[in-house]
Queue: 2 jobs
Job 1
Amino acid sequence: MKITILTLFPEMFAPLKMSIIGRAAGRGKLDIDIVNIRDYTQDKHHFKCDDYPFGGGAGMVMMPQPIASAIEAVDPGHVARRIYMSPKGATFTQAKAFELTGYEHLVLLCGHYEGVDQRVIDMFIDEEISIGDYVLTGGELPAMVVCDCVARYIDGVLSDGSLVDESFADGALEYPQYTRPAVFRGVSVPEVLLSGDHAKVAEWRRAESLKLTKKLRPDLLQGK
Ligand SMILES: C[S@@+](CC[C@H](N)C(=O)[O-])C[C@H]1O[C@@H](n2cnc3c(N)ncnc32)[C@H](O)[C@@H]1O
């Protein structure tokens, strides 16, 4: 899978070179291409990407031409799924991340300042995705969130089984996890986890998952 990120701040994406996602890219499981929108400006100094909003108001708006040219260059023929990271979009979920793995190429457009000229959204974008009901300074962190979450579903990125029991996989939260030592500051791990009885461990985990979901996220259980 290929993910192209269009941004005015390519240097913000250093975290994608690290840890599991960085290793996956290094092994060729995922191709992440960070493209500087400024490279597609047409002014003399190849710099101008934003301008004052028509009608007045605070801040600057990203101009349509550099974004349009960048999108046309990275996705000629409109083969990719083009996504604008935006607080106005539908809220990103695990289910959406899984759905996005169905595309061979994603283009993620990161806005900045007051956002991007609406004509670019209307002409070039397939969908808008928000990472939550709050406003950030730019789409770079949201794009990294989408990249990270989608990458976890790519074959060979995580170890086998990691995706099976985790939170949201079946509409509930994951059971509590414990590791060594078996007793930490006088508190023992639940005995069943040391029993070696796989059926009992599975039963305990199911019950704990439900208990935790009821306590922390009862909304997930509505309609079940
Ligand atoms: C300051 S925000 C613009 C907010 C816009 N003026 C509004 O009120 O809806 C700048 C950019 O950050 C990104 N952004 C901010 N919050 C976001 C969120 N919750 N999810 C996804 N992208 C977000 C978008 O790309 C947006 O264009």
Job 2
Amino acid sequence: MPDLGELEKAFNKRLAELVERAEGIEDDLRHKLDADSSEQAIDLADDEALAGIDNVLRDEVREIREALLRIERGTYGQCSACGAEISAQRLKALPVAIRCIKCA
Ligand SMILES: [Zn+2]
């Protein structure tokens, strides 16, 4: 079992980074609304890419919040499907894992 205090710190740090990046992306999107219409085609492609990044960010934020909640409740490292302990090796590779390797 990893050091939960350290893990919590690392999760919170990552969460802050992700929120900052998400805010940066939102700023970009806002600026694009003011952009010259001749750049619209390029902007459209960019917006799609940004929307994709945004989804990835959102998913990661959700996963980290879930992991933090599990630390708080004392269920961190426990498989959400079968209740077995998730191996330390798996948690090291994927700290936000909520299922054991068999249930993943
Ligand atoms: Zn399981």
